[in-house]
Amino acid sequence: xxxxxxxxxxxxxxxxxxxxxxxxxxxxxxxxxxxxxxxxxxxxxxxxxxxxxxxxxxxxxxxxxxxxxxxxxxxxxxxxxxxxxxxxxxxxxxxxxxxxxxxxxxxxxxxxxxxxxxxxxxxxxxxxxxxxxxxxxxxxxxxxxxxxxxxxxxxxxxxxxxxxxxxxxxxxxxxxxxxxxxxxxxxxxxxxxxxxxxxxxxxxxxxxxxxxxxxxxxxxxxxxxxxxxxxxxxxxxxxxxxxxxxxxxxxxx
Length: 253
Ligand SMILES: N[C@@H](CCC(=O)NCCCC(=O)O)C(=O)O
Fold this sequence. Notes:
By secondary structure, this protein is of the alpha/beta class. The chain has helices at 28-38, 55-58, 91-107, 116-124, 150-153, 167-172, 232-252, and strands at 8-12, 14-18, 21-25, 41-45, 63-66, 111-114, 129-131, 158-162, 177-179, 185-187, 194-199, 205-210, 217-220.
């Protein structure tokens, strides 16, 4: 692999039914942040794990980014009973990200997990999720506001405290930082081997890292991709991820 070529980063697709077809797609906000701020080339991976060996992708990329989504990890994956409060689901996405997360960590591929991706990371480590957290006593409403303008929906909403001495602190500084918030689920039981890197005022786990990871491995509940070109901490996260991907590419040779 030439070190002059930009790294490739695998981005798992969501599955959507639209205009009589089944689409495998990813929002361009993540793709633009990867290209413009991390300096890498995003490669959308179709959620079709039964159709190909994931090694065909992971042998050729230098990082993985798992995106947010309005869909939720199926509760059966963490021992919870499905109900309407856990919907909508995207089981093909679940299957793909489960494989991407496990394999990327095994290989030491840099991993950035955002929102749903952060929740998938927790489940991959045996953790659990809680749903409709705004209904719990003492919890904030972390859901997106209803607004036609995405810039309003992704406006920063609350502060998060940064865990001193952790990976996130090394990237964004001691904090606190202000983040946006577009989720109704959150980490309940923290997965074994994950470290809390940031917390909301109501105790919601807002960022995690993988203890002893071979490379960059960070999950964030908020959306740094949306303001990655203008917001300092958001840009720092994507720049650090891009640097880790370049390091992986160079080591791969
Ligand atoms: N569905 C999960 C994860 C939330 C998430 O990834 N949100 C991304 C943006 C979705 C939108 O545009 O509304 C949860 O709700 O916790």
